[in-house]
Design brief:
Protein name: Nucleotide pyrophosphohydrolase
Pfam families: MazG (PF03819)
Radius of gyration: 18 Å
Order of helices and strands: HHHH
Shape: extended
Bound molecules: magnesium ion
Number of strands: 0
Oligomer: single chain
Strand content: under 5%
Domain NTP pyrophosphohydrolase MazG-like: 26-102
Largest sheet: none
Distance between the termini: 33 Å
InterPro entries: MazG-like_dom, MazG-related_YpjD, YpjD/YvdC
């Protein structure tokens, strides 16, 4: 499976649009974003020495990051924003502003 941000956002919108409740209002969405960020933090903690509670597993970082992305897509859709355009703008920023910020790898043998 391969999809653009636009396609993923449309898929999220098709899913949410099936339900009368629709998107959560912005502050509730922000709470969900924070909740999912905490779930990412919990998995990272488990992967770095914190012992899971009894009956709790390490967790699934890939799935938790996808949960976070889902909430971000919901936020963008609810606000009528394009994550695809935002991603492009963000990459343009880091590729120009931060072009000399980090130590480049030595070119490999040719
Ligand atoms: Mg989660």
């Amino acid at each position: 499976m391969s999809m653009t941000f636009q396609e993923a956002s449309e898929r999220v919108d098709r899913y949410i649009s099936q339900f009368r409740e629709g998107y959560f209002p912005p502050l509730l969405m922000l709470a969900r974003l924070t909740e999912e960020t905490g779930e990412v933090a919990r998995v990272i903690a488990h992967m770095n020495g914190k012992t899971p509670k009894p009956g709790e597993d390490v967790g699934d970082l890939e799935l938790e990051l996808a949960d976070l992305l889902f909430v971000m897509m919901c936020m963008a859709n609810e606000q009528g924003l394009s994550l695809e355009r935002g991603f492009e703008r963000m990459m343009q920023k880091v590729e120009t502003r931060d072009a000399e910020r980090w130590t480049r790898k030595e070119p490999g043998p040719s």
